[in-house]
Amino acid sequence: MVLMKGNEYIESLRKRGPLKIFLLGERIENPVEHPIIRASINSVALTYDLAHDPEYRGLMTAKSRLTGKTINRFCHLHSSVEDLQKKVKMQRLLGQRCGTCFQRCVGMDALNAVFLTTYEIDKKTGTDYHQRFIRYAKEAEAKDWVIDGCMTDPKGDRSKRPSEQRDKDVYVHIAGRTDDGVVIRGAKVHQTGAVNSHQHLIMPTLAMRNEDKDYAICCAIPADAKGITYFYGRQSSDLRRLDESTEGDIDCGNPVYGGQECLVVFDDVFVPNERIFMNGENEFCGRLVDSFAAYHRQSYGGCKVGVGDVLIGAAATIAEYNGVSKASHIQDKLVEMTHLNETLYSCGIACSAAGEQTPAGNYLVDILLANICKQNVTRFPYEIARLLQDIAGGLFVTCPSAKELRNPETREIIEKYLVGVDEVSAIDRIKMLRLIENLTLGRAAVGYLAESMHGAGSPQAQRIMIGRMSNIEEKKKLAKSLANIQS
Ligand code: SF4
Ligand code: FE
Predict the structure, then answer these.
(1) pLDDT tens by residue, 246-262
(2) Which H or E run includes 353?
(3) Exposure winner among 28, 84, 258, 259, fewest CB in 10 A?
(4) % helix / strand / coil in the chain, to the nearest 5?
(5) 150 is known as an active-site residue
(6) What pLDDT digit, counting tens, does each position of 431-445 carry?
(7) Domains of the chain
């Protein structure tokens, strides 16, 4: 089925085999109905529903380069510079709509990175990974899968290579081989949307040396494969989702949408040959990691900008509710927030516009500019959030619980003292303050702030790439030439 709707996607999650999921100390048998998990599913479901909205179809869908059919852009192999730009615009739109991480980009970025890398492996070594991968990508398109792009290993002692670790399992590796496939063991951390996925596309986490060949594995497995255990990440204020009353919704800030991060453990999971896309070709790990990272660093120039739009909107709204919207310093802070946010967007668009076709035929962003984009994302959202907190005033962290609004003894007092301008109810003001708390301190802050810092690689990972690609020698020549220095 091409182009599922949101409810069909949710139904497809129910049809998976049982998943072994632990959350808050309990085994979760029915993840789709769990209030914490459901909020994160709602965010992914938006990526399906908006593909059916006539207003957004041009952004949300694409023509498959493999079949010519119309597919969801999240399953698309980018076929032009315009595709790369549309990807960023789509991510901004979704960030605006859910105000958090909608999770599906890691799979899109992994599909594109594995597509180009398998082509290059085959060309050099005569393997047939690329055709296998094309079959996989066609199935992903046809079934409109959510794919969890699994890259980050736990890594243990960072001063040691994978094969030097005391416990080999801190990097995913091949633990056994048969004629039919391989058995993998290990874990991946920070896995965005893992429980909400149909598939995991597993990639090595760093460039591997010859002694680390067993760690040079790229492969795909279904989310319900035997041997997988999910440990659902605990995020700040998550218990508020367990209070299903209206007051609980108010205190959530963003009651409908949430993000999701998991620790995923692979305990001797079998992978058939047909789903193996790299098996010991360690010299290509660097290419796979760098291209995946570049695509995902581009992604942040879209999704975080969309959430940034929500922060700016919240700042302007709470200023109105507080009666200070005309103050010149408020206006100036809104301009500063917009300047920072649009600078991030400019980076997302720029690395896309400077993208080029790969030997495999799909398009890759400009790697240096994608790293510049993400480096800015590690900083600017913090300033945008700081300005929002400044404009909001302290009540977003000192506000009494919305349960006080249900209690007849306290309701009138809360309404009397927490009101702002006459035209706006105290309840609406509290709702906006709780959204601000959610965006800058709560669950969405994981997606907006901490994920801006560490998602798609921590700041130093981008600085290493920027240093590697900054071409200082050429720049020295420019300076020497102007100064008329010959040597
Ligand atoms: Fe997509 Fe952004 Fe979430 Fe990454 S952090 S999966 S790019 S929404
Ligand atoms: Fe992310």
Answers:
(1) 888 999 999 999 999 99
(2) helix 328-353
(3) 28
(4) 55, 15, 30
(5) no
(6) 999 999 999 998 777
(7) 288-478 (1.20.140.10)
